[in-house]
Amino acid sequence: MSKFLKNKNLNYEKAQSLVNNTLADCDDGELYLEDTKSESILLDDNKIKSSSFKRDTGYGLRGVTEDKVAYSHSNDISEKSLEMSCDNIKSTLKNSDGKYNHSISKTNQKFYDELDPIESKSLETKIELLKEINQYARSKDECVKQVTANFLGEHKNIEILRPGGELFTDSRPLVRINVSILVEKNGRKETAMYGVGGRQSYDNYLKNDDWKKICDEAFRMAYTNLESKPSPAGEMKVVLGPGWPAILIHEAVGHGLEGDFNRKKTSVFHDLVGKKVASDGVTIIDDGTIDKRRGSLNIDDEGTPTEKTVLIENGILKNFMQDRMNARLMKTKSTGNGRRESYKHVIMPRMRNTIMLNGNNTQEEMIKSVDKGIFAVSFGGGQVDITSGKFVFNCTEAYEIVNGKIGSPLKGATLIGDGPSSLKQVLMVGNDMKLDPGIGTCGKAGQGVPVGVGQPSMLIDNMTVGGTQL
Amino acid sequence: MLKEDEHLKKLAENFSTNLKKSGASESSVLISNSISESVNIRNKKLDGSTRSDSLNVVLTAYVGKKKSSISSSNLDESHINELIKKCIETAKITPEDELNSLPDSELYFKGIKNLDLYDETFIENSKKIDFIKEAEEQAFKKKEIVNTNGSGFSQNKSNFILANSNGFIDGYKSSNFSAYCEVVAKSNGSMERDYEYSSKRFFKDLLEPKEIGQKASELAISKLNPKKIKSKKMKVVFDKRIAKNFLSSFASAITSSTIAKGTTFLKNKLNTQIFNNKINIIDKPDILKGSGSRYFDIEGTSTNKLNLVENGVLKNYLIDTYNGKKINMKSNGRASGTSNLYFENGSEDYKNLINSDKEIVYINETFGRGANIITGDYSVGASGFMVENGEFIYPISEITIAGNLNDIFNKMVLGNDLEFNYSTNSPSMLIDELTIGGK
Q1: Residue among B51, B43, B25, B275 nearest B140 (CA)
Q2: Does A90 contact chain B (CB < 8 Å)?
C-alpha cells in the first residue's frame, strides 16, 4: 500500500484506476512517485556560507507505446493534476494496442540500509566538523589560502505503481563530503578537490579521523600542481592510475554501450556485439549490486532489480545496458539500467558502477616500458560524442614519464581519444583494481545521476595530449 | 495554466508573514511556477512528448546575522509552516556572518516592465510536431543524412514572485520557444553528427524549420571523413558558436564570489588592460525580447547595462549583495549572473579572418572543460576544418587546442558578424597562434 498517497488529495484506489485506465493500451508505463529530502552545508572562506534544506515531492506518469514515450510530471500530487496528466498521455499515444507490458520480478536484494543520512547526524555536529576540517586544512601549510568544504546529503524515497496493481518501492540514502583547497606560492595558484561518498551515513566516512585523509589528499594534489610544468602536445603513451581514472572507460565505451544509442543506431558500437572491441584481457562490467556504492541501486527507476552486467569480456562486446523500452525494441531483457534524475525526468538507460576488472601487470612494469609519455592519476571530468566516438577528459594530476621513470608533474591537460579504437590499444592491464572514492555524477541529456567507476592501472599505446609544449 | 501574479503574491505574503511570526528578523520568499511542453521526433516520426508543471518555493530566513534557506515543491500551508520552523531553527544554529543581509533598499528595481519577455502564443503538440518534422524532412533531402539523434520543439512559460521583508514584491512572466534538429551523416564508414537550434522569447521569431534542418544537415555532412593533423602552433579561427564560450569563462572569472575568494586569474585586474585595446565587452539586460533580458536579479536588485571591458580595460565585476560587501562594492544586479553578454563587433571581415594566414585551423566544435579560471590555462578537445588561402580544404577531428587566457585575450581579433541569437553572443574570432595537439 502506498505510503505516498496518505494525506494527499489523491487516494490509492483512484490513482490505481487512473493508471490502469490510461496505460491499459500502452506497451509499458508507470506512475512514479518521489519524495526527496536533501541538504547542503557549505563552509567557504572561513565561514559557514550556507545551510540549506530542500524537500521535493512529485509524480511522473509515463506511457510507452512502440518507440514512443509520453511523459507528464507535476509537483502537485492530486486527483485533478493526475487526470490532466492522463489526458496529456492519451493525446500523444493514440492507437495503442498494448502488446507487451511484461511484469517485473520482485526482489528482496538490499545493497544499502534504510536510513535518513540527514537526520542521523545533527546539524550542530556537521557545522563543528566543517570548522575542524577548515582549521586542519589551513594548518597543513602556510601556502593554503582557501578551503571550501561541504556536506551533501540526500534521502530519496520512491514508489512505482504499475497498471494491474504492482507496486515497487525503494529508499535510497546518499551522502558526499568534499574538500577543496587553494594553495598559493611564489605568485602561482593551484586548487584541488577531493571527496568521498556513497549510500550510507556520513559517519561511515568520518570515523577514526578519516576526514583528515580527505584534506590530506586535496592538499597533496594542489601542492604537487604548484610545481607542475606545461604539458606536451601530441600523441604519446599514457599510463592511467587505478580507481577514478576509470571515467575514461565510462566516456570511451560506457555511453556508447547504452541501449538507446544502439537501438537508434547512432552509437559506433551498434553493430559490434560478438565482435572484438578491446584488447585481450580487457573485461568491463556495469554493476548495480555493490554494497553501499554511489552507483548501486536495489531496483532501477522502473522497478527492475539491478544486476552485474558483463559489457565486454576478454575484449569481446557482450551486452548493452538496457531499460525496458530499449530492451523490448531490441528483443532482449532489461539489465536494470533504467534510471532518471528525478520525477521531473524521463527514464533512460544509464550506467551504475562501471568497472574494468583486474589483469596481470603491475603499474611499475607499465611505467618502465614507456620512453616518453604521461602518467595520469586523477581527472576532473570527461565527455563523449557517441556518434563519432571521440571522447575527452581533463587531467587534474598527471606526471611526465621519461625513459621509464616518473618525472615532473604536468599542468592540467585535456586528453582526447577515439572510443572504439582506444580499448584496442590497451597494452597492459594492472592487478591493482580500485573503485573511485564515491564522487561521480554522470550527465546525459540534461539529467545527472550518481555513478561509480573502477579500474586497475592501465597502459594505453596512443592518446593525444592537449598541452602547449611541442 | 500558469499561476497568475496575484495568486503567487498572496502566497508569498502569507509565507512572509509566517516567517516573521516564527522569529525571522528579515526574510525573503521566491515562488516560481513553470509549465513546459515539448515533443521529440526521430527519423520524421514522433518519439515522445513531455509535459512538466512545477511550482516551487525558496524561503530564506535571517535571525540577526544568522541565515538559512529551505526549498520545497509542496506548498501546502501546514507543510510550509513545518518547514519555516525548521528553517528558523537551522538559522539559529548556523554561525553568524556579519555580511548576511538583504540588498540595500535603494538598489531595488522600481522601473517599468516593458521588455516584451512573454509571448502568450500556445502551440498545440500537433503543431510542434509539424514544425520540427519539417526541419528533419529538409535535412533528409541530403542523401548522406541517414539517421537522426532526435529533434525537438519545446515551449516554456514561467512566472515568479520575489518578496522580501524590506517591502520588495515583484515578478514577471517570461516565455521561451526552442527548436533543435540533430542529424547523423554517414559516408565511407565515417559517421558524424551535428545540430542547429533556435531559441527565442517569441514563437514567431524562431528560425524557419527548413533553415534549421538545412543547417544541421550541412554541418554534419561537412564533418564526414575527418583527418587528424600534426601537432603544431597555428592561427585558429573560432566559429561564433564556440567563440562565445570565451565570454562565459571571462564572466566566471570576474564574478564577485571568485574575486572575493581570489580563485580567479583576473583578481586585482580592475581598471587594468586584460584584452588588447580593440576589445569591448558589454552586458545589456534591456534588449527588447532578449533571451537574457531581465529587470532585476534573484535578489530584487535592478540590473542595468554594464560596460565590462572598454578598449581592453576591465571596468566592472559582476556583483551580488553578499560578495559585494566582501570586496566593498555595491551589487550591480548580477546575483543571477550575466544577462545579454556580448563582444562588440571588431573591424575584420570574416573573409579576412580565415584568410589571415596561408594555413589556419577553423574550429566549430569543442568539448571538455575548457578553461581553468584560477590559472587561465585553456585546453579542449576540438574538431573543425583545415583552411588554406581562405578555402575550406578538409574536416579535422580528434585534436586538442591549448593556450592561456591571458595570452588569448591579448591576441584576440574579432570579426564584424555579431548576431543576437542567444543570451551570450560573439562575432567570429581569430587567435594568433594556439598549440594544436594532433598526430
Answers
A1: B43
A2: no
- Asked if A356 contacts A287 with a C-beta cutoff of 8 angstroms, the reply is no
* Spatial distance between the Cα atoms of B160 and B56, rounded to a whole number of angstroms: 9
Cα–Cα distance between B160 and B177 in angstroms, integer? 18
Residues in Cβ contact with A152 at an 8 Å cutoff, skipping those fewer than 6 apart: A38, A39, A40, A175, A176, A177, A178, A197
B152 forms beta bridges with B40, B180
The 10s digit of each residue's pLDDT in B345-392 is 999 999 999 999 999 999 999 998 789 999 999 999 999 999 999 999
**pLDDT (0 to 100) of residue B368:** 86
CB pairs under 8 A between A and B: 240
Burial category of A194 from C-beta neighbours within 10 Å (exposed 0-12, middle 13-18, buried 19 and up): buried
The answer to whether residues B316 and B306 touch, using CB atoms and an 8 Å cutoff, is: yes
> CB A392 to CB B95 under 8 A?
no
Is A169 exposed, middle or buried (CB count within 10 Å of its CB: 0-12, 13-18, 19+)? middle
**Are A91 and B97 an interchain contact pair (Cβ–Cβ within 8 Å)?**
no
Domain regions of chain B by residue span = 5-222, 226-439
> A422 — contact with chain B (CB < 8 Å)?
no
How far apart, in whole angstroms, are the C-alpha atoms of residue A203 and residue A205? 5
Lookup result for grid cell 570586496: B327
Give pLDDT tens digits for A431-466: 999 999 999 999 998 999 999 999 999 999 989 999
pTM of the model: 0.92
Rounded Cα–Cα distance for residues B28 and A415 (Å): 45
- Across the interface, of B83, B231, B261, the residue whose CB is closest to A470 is B231
> Which residue's C-alpha cell is 539500467?
A337
pLDDT in tens, B109-164: 998 999 999 999 999 999 999 999 999 999 999 999 999 989 999 999 999 999 99
| Separation of alpha carbons B438 and B399, rounded Å | 5
Tell me which residues of chain B, numbers 404 to 433, contact chain A at a CB-CB cutoff of 8 Å.
Answer: 404
Q: Is residue B210 exposed (0-12), middle (13-18) or buried (19+ Cβ within 10 Å)?
A: middle
Q: Which residues in chain A are contacts of B149 at CB distance < 8 A?
A: 264, 266, 387
Q: Which residues of B touch A231 (CB under 8 A)?
A: 379, 402
Query: For residues B347 and B278, is the Cβ–Cβ distance under 8 A?
Result: yes
Domain spanning A123-155+173-226: CATH 3.30.2290.10:
yes
Q: What contacts A411, CB < 8 A, 6 or more positions away?
A: A225, A228, A229, A230, A231, A467, B375, B377
Record: contact B50-A464, CB cut-off 8 A? no
Question: Quick one: pLDDT at residue A107?
Answer: 87
Phi and psi at A297, nearest 5°, equal -145, 140
ipTM of the complex: 0.88
**What are φ and ψ of residue B239, in 5° steps?**
-60, 155
Looking at the complex, does the CB of residue A276 fall below 8 Å from at least one CB of chain B? no
User: What's the confidence (pLDDT) of residue A7?
Assistant: 61
Q: Is B372 on the interface with A (CB under 8 A)?
A: yes
In degrees and rounded to multiples of 5, residue B13 shows phi and psi of -65, -40
Q: Selecting from 3.30.1490.270, 3.30.470.30, 3.10.450.50, 3.30.2290.10, what CATH number does the domain B5-222 have?
A: 3.30.2290.10
* pLDDT tens, position by position, B169-192: 999 999 999 999 999 999 988 889
Residue A465 touches chain B, beta carbons under 8 Å: yes
| Regions of chain A where pLDDT drops below 50 | none
Residue B110, judged by CB atoms within 10 A of its CB (0-12, 13-18, 19+), counts as exposed
| Minimum distance, in Å, between the CA of residue B298 and any CA atom of chain A | 16
Q: Is the pLDDT of residue B262 over 70?
A: yes
Residue range(s) of every CATH 3.30.2290.10 domain in chain A? 123-155+173-226
pLDDT of B106 above 60: yes
